[in-house]
From TrEMBL:
GO terms for molecular function: sigma factor antagonist activity. It comes from Pseudomonas hamedanensis. This is FecR family protein. It comes from the Bacteria. InterPro entries: FecR, FecR_N, Ferrdict_sens_TM. Residues 16-56 form the FecR N-terminal domain. Gene3D superfamilies: 2.60.120.1440.
């Protein structure tokens, strides 16, 4: 039952209790007794389990509690300031987007990866063979070069790959692997985004041969320059033309060409900590332009200057709402 109701909103009492635990943890390390109480509390009922799942999502997305809710300077355990902050935090937990439940927080292995980026960060790597990998925001990869292959395993996130000819006499294939399949570069430049339950591939130069994780013996798909496709572990999607702006993020830009505002906001939130919520009345507003991903607040201000949008920020910018002007 709990698994089927994972995205349901917990009751208010459970949310307030989760808020209280978050605040207590922000004040410092829990004692052994407190940690035992917390461990028992979070698994004692399905409602509490769901409330704590939302608290974990909030912590990860914000990188900690907003400064305005930090409680280290407030009296414990029942000052009016503390109770007010706890109530505000419970409201925030109630509004955490349900879709965040698909994040792989519990099982994520990002911090043990060979290379990784934080939210909003890009990083370029030069590999031993001369190939170059650019990691987009919130990305983790492993690199394995051995006698038989040059392998990049994309754990999560998005990469831009520029391959080089193998410097060894073995002519080892260059492969990018995800949970959904293996992509062998055929002298090429391409982007790969791992987005459960699919991998998104766009080829900018050359070609890429794709094999599905659950059908390695089947006929591979060849995706050529100017083409893109999505695939799951067992099924290829349609091959279509690549968006010419697919790699613009590697230049620090988020490009929009008559793009739905709802889709734009989904992309923008990948590059910032905190929440951006959109009034449904604006979801289908079409926007165009080039926007910097390194300064998401500037991007939001640009939208407000160009389109009938009001941007309102709360909690020192952690929570932003876009409303009709």
């Amino acid at each position: 039952m709990l698994a089927r109701r994972h995205d349901a909103r917990p009751d208010q009492q459970a949310l307030e209790e989760a808020a209280d635990w978050l605040i207590r943890m922000s004040e410092g390390e829990l004692s052994d007794r407190e940690r035992g109480e917390w461990e028992c509390w979070k698994v004692s009922t399905p409602e509490r389990a769901r409330a704590w799942a939302r608290a974990q999502l909030l912590q990860t997305k914000l990188g900690g509690l907003p400064p305005s809710l930090a409680m280290s300077a407030l009296d414990r355990p029942s000052s009016p300031q503390r109770r007010a902050a706890m109530g505000k935090l419970a409201v925030i937990l109630a509004l955490v987007p349900a879709g965040w439940g698909s994040w792989k927080l519990a099982e994520s292995q990002q911090w043990s990866a060979d290379y990784r980026t934080a939210v909003g960060q890009q990083r370029e790597l030069s590999l031993a063979d001369g190939s170059k990998i650019t990691l987009n925001t919130d990305t983790a990869i492993d690199v394995l070069f051995d006698a038989s292959q040059r392998l990049i395993y994309l754990r999560e996130g998005e990469i831009l790959v520029q391959t080089a000819a193998d410097i060894s006499p073995l002519a080892r294939p260059f492969v990018v692997s995800t949970c959904q399949g293996r992509m062998q570069a055929l002298g090429t430049r391409f982007t790969v985004r791992e987005r459960q339950p699919q991998t998104h591939l766009a080829v900018l130069e050359g070609a890429v041969k794709v094999e599905l994780a659950n059908n390695r013996q089947g006929t591979p798909l060849i995706v050529n320059a100017g083409q893109r496709t999505d695939f799951s572990s067992s099924t290829f999607g349609a091959v279509s033309a690549t968006d010419r702006n697919v790699g613009a993020w590697s230049q620090g830009m988020l490009m929009a060409d008559k793009m739905r505002l709802a889709d734009f906001v989904d992309e923008l939130t990948r590059y910032r900590r905190g929440f951006v919520r959109l009034d449904p009345a604006l979801a289908d507003l079409r926007i165009s332009g080039a926007y910097p991903i390194s300064d998401s607040q500037r991007t939001l201000n640009m939208l407000a200057q160009t389109y009938p949008i009001v941007v309102s920020g709360h909690l020192n910018g952690y929570w932003v709402m876009l409303s009709p002007a």
